[in-house]
Amino acid sequence: MAVLVVVALALLAAAAVALLATVEAPRREGERPVRAFRRGLRAWLRPDAELRAEARSLAAVQPVDVSLEQMLRANVEPGGGYLEPGELAGSLHAAAVRVLPGHGHDAEG
Fold it and tell me: Most buried among 4, 44, 58, 103, by the most CB within 10 A?
């Protein structure tokens, strides 16, 4: 009996979340959230010809064999990186001094 109550509460919670999500979803002028949810669900379950054609064209794309080096070279951005090696080395050294006994200048203190 307790399991049924938990399952019912979970289903109610899921329905509430779905309805709340439709409040923020794009709606037509004057359309109620429940109607927008049903329209979106219907479109998801039975996509129209345009969506099916788009899905087929995306599925037909063939993968391209590219080495990791080629991919990284093609996507190089000018300027400094996200991490600076000097900052990273300093942070790692400070962490090692705090964690590892006998490491760094604080070994005697």
Answer: 103
Residue 58 lies in a domain: no
Q: Give the dihedral sign, CA 14/19/22/24.
A: negative
Number of domains in the chain: 1
**How many angstroms separate the Cα of 19 from the Cα of each of 24, 33, 34, 35?**
9, 7, 7, 10
Closest by Cα among 45, 46, 44, 37 to 15: 37
Matching residue, tokens 């993968």: 63
Range in 23-32, 39-48, 72-81, 95-104 the model is least confident about: 23-32
25-73 pLDDT tens trace:
666 777 777 787 787 778 878 888 888 888 888 888 888 898 999 988 8
Residue 16 lies in a domain: yes
